[in-house]
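Changelog note: in this version the structure field was regenerated for every chain. One regenerated record is shown below for reference.
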Amino acid sequence: MKFKSVIAVLALIASSAANASLISNGSFEAPGIQSGWTYLSDNSNGWQGDNIEVWRSGFNGVTSYEGNQHGELNAHPHDGTSFSIYQTFATTANSTYAYSLAYRARSNNDESFRLEIFTGDLNNRDHVVNFEFIDHTTREWSTFASSFIGSGFNTYFMLTSVNPTAATVGNFIDAVVVNDVSAPTSIALLGIALAGLISVRRRA
């Protein structure tokens, strides 16, 4: 392998590792469906909740923001309360985490949902982020991006329907991402890439 090619490959590996999302299945691409929609009740593919509804891009005229599928809140809750989906991931104390998502209203422009990022547990929440989205429309996708500082504890990323409450329509979600963008992580990845580069040069 040529020296320049090795540099390109190692840079790509470092970049991919640095940008790996802590959210699994953030674009709701799993399980893959061929048309229409489905909903899952087995808490599989990263997300947990009463049910996770997945739409194929183009169904009912709604094109996914990213990939071939997107999710929907308000998908057949069992207990008659607001519907939530969530994931958990570990954080490092004082590291910076960037997060982003795409969202769109399904039925009317008055729909809203809440984003919570917190430590603790579902019954005792120490919030890092607690924000209600009220600005989305049925016409197009909106996006949001921000950041938070890690606590070193297990962290929840939760989305909950607000309006409509416990209904079966509303609040499309796509492209959910959480990345560790702290400087120590980037430096460590660069060190790994450089170590690999030195090893390749020695073998050349």
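Spot check on this record: The domain at 26-178 is CATH 2.60.120.260 (Jelly Rolls). The helical segments are 3-18, 183-203.
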